[in-house]
Predict the structure.
Amino acid sequence: MAGIGPYIVRRLSATLVALLGVSLIVFLMVRVLPGDPARVIAGLLASEEEVARIRTQLGLDKPLYVQYIHFLGSLLRGDLGRSARTFEPVTREIMHRLPATALLAVTSSILAAVFGIGAGTLAATHANTFVDYFISTTVLFGISMPVYWLGIMLIVLFAIKLQWLPAAGAEEPTSIVLPAITLASFSVALVVRMTRSSMLEVLRRDYILTARAKGLPERRVIHRHAIRNALIPVITVVGLQFGNLLGGAVLTESVFGWPGMGLLLVESIFSRDYPMVQGIVLVFAFLVAAVNLLVDIAYALVDPRIHYA
Amino acid sequence: MPKAKRYEFLRRLGHQRAAVIGATIIASLALMGIFAPLITPYNPVKQDLVKVLVPPSSAHPLGTDHLGRDILSRIFYGARLSLFIGFLAVGLGLAIGVPLGIVSGYYGGWVDIAIQRLVDIMLSFPSFLLALSLVALLGVGLSNVILAVGVSTIPSFIRLARGTVLVVREQTYIEAAKAVGTGDTRILFRHILPNVTAPVIVQATLGLGMAILMASGLGFLGLGVQPPTPEWGSMLGEGRNYIFSAPHVATFPGIAIFLAVLGFNLLGDGLRDALDPYLRLA
């Protein structure tokens, strides 16, 4: 496994550079707004003294590069400033909402992986039959469907017409069912596509031919030899989908009133709570970068055939 | 593309059932949008407070919304807007992303490193969040939505163009062109660009679907094109307040978005298959 160490270091440093860039953009976000950032943060109703106090407090009277260094310093201490709306620390509010988003994202990823791999395998083992066409068509529909519309349709069907599940909120244990299915819909479709093509590729290999030739039952060939090898790229896709999943979470949380970071982001945009918007965007970017890094490293560890270019 | 090759390509495309269905859907939506003023039965922004939330009927085939506006007419006009946003946004992403990708791949070195770091940073923001953040900064409205969605498509075009150029750059005919003293500009335009075209067309077609999805997502949140302009996403967003009493208000704009995205996805997949021999870059 020579070479994996430097690879991890290289990948880690690329991630750090990207995150530094992200922090610079997020830092500049509020500064490029027309008008006085101190006024923006203080809100339109604040007095001149209040604005001046915020300007000094935030160091906005100092040169830009000094401000950025301060900003980075605060970031490293986990200090994202205070909300312009509630005056609570941004970090505390985000930490309060993070578990709900994490629960939703993880549940959806598991759903996407289980159903996606199952359906993808079925499509590959029945390639060019009715089963395959049916699954492929459903997948195409899944990719083309707006998640927020699917969410509303699920509410109409399961909450209003059938009254099986709650329409919104997170009070009941079953509240997560509809949001999780909604959010998983897009990822499921991608996982099916990836599993299908990866399985078809693996099923063509010589060791599958060998396994069949030595008389192994087909079920065993698929489960023992094919799926395990076909899954490596699929797991990468599930991981790399995480970013899109968070994007979808913003919409899904809005539809279902799910009390996560996505809903908080939309509320903060409407109330022009820029410190909160800044903080949430940073946390989202950090999560995406961290998951991508872990996926890449896991991929390198799992599959010794890849070379660390 | 030479004439014979073009004919061959069109023949292959015609054989792709999916592409034909996709192209038909898009063409229908485009016609709906273009001829909306002639074929819609009602003014899309005219309110009729006597007929609010009327379910589908012969007078209003798709019903009316909470202000008594005819949903069918609004969907027709919405087609115009959604396609307009999609084409301009993807055009923007393409116009900036493809040249950057080509330069990055062809020249390599510090130019490549700089552009790739920029892509890494942009990709750290999930594309919908990037668009959302830009709208949060720039403010809502048509031009800002186009800009936000367009910018969020740039990294995918950079990656794609760069990847293709990296393969083409190593081909013998590029080496030959260099050996006979052909200048960089001529190589880029004459030999590299034509090879990048096919994958970019596929990506742009699929990107159109994504752009429409993203723009209507912003509209749904109330951060896109503002009412009373008939935009599918904002129509859906308004409709969700009435899902208990009048689910048709949210249903039909959603179907319109779905069909448009489906159309571009079918067409994009079909194009990919039809262009396949040219995608191999041999």
